[in-house]
Amino acid sequence: MTAETSQTLDRGLRVLKLLAESDHGLTVTELSRQLGVNRTVVYRLLATLEQHSLVRRDAGGRARVGVGVLGLGRQVHPLVREAALPALRALAEDVGATAHLTVVDGTDALTVAVVEPSWTDYHVAYRTGFRHPLDRGAAGRAILTGRCKDINDEDGFVLTRGELEAGGSGAAAPLPRDCGIEGSVGVVMLSEAVPPEVGPRVVRAAEEVAAVLR
């Protein structure tokens, strides 16, 4: 910590990060141990965060991330979309297919940016705000793949066919974890199979998007 930073704010943000990384919430004792502070400090931090709906505590006393973070997240989407558009536009033009950026929203995959190619006679119409389960479609499956510490897919991308739209195929790659956004970059096309060169191009686009988000 430096003289220009707030120790209390830093601890509060660390609480939110710890809770976001926990699948089952954390107790005051667990937070106290991980933060290296006494339980009284943790109680005060949680009480303040609860007032802003950023944290909630269940009947068993375990703290979890609250619904208030959703409001903050919605304001992030436009910024992420603007940052990703150049890479998505280049991807769409190179591949000749609709490119998209998808992020996690609860248990769903939420499309936050879409770019359609300018030169094709026809392509898939995809809309911002489209959502689907994480375990369906290339975009969602790529996000789940990105969560694995040991990614089995050496190519770094996921291919699907007909999972979200009959006759449609998709390719997507997860955003690198260090960019701060859990999501994926992909394309969707009217094709029985994704051409072999598309997968690596999608991986490169995901890296380009991550580079501007870091």
Automatic annotation (TrEMBL):
GO biological process, alphabetically ordered: negative regulation of DNA-templated transcription
Domain HTH iclR-type: 6-67
Alphabetized GO MF terms: DNA binding; DNA-binding transcription factor activity
Family matches, as Pfam families: HTH_IclR, IclR_C
Domain IclR-ED: 68-214
Keywords: DNA-binding, Transcription, Transcription regulation
Keyword check for Transcription: yes
PANTHER family (UniProt xref): HELIX-TURN-HELIX TRANSCRIPTIONAL REGULATOR, ICLR FAMILY (PTHR30136), HTH-TYPE TRANSCRIPTIONAL REPRESSOR ALLR (PTHR30136:SF24)
Protein name per the record: HTH domain-containing protein
Lineage of source species: Bacteria, Bacillati, Actinomycetota, Actinomycetes, Kitasatosporales
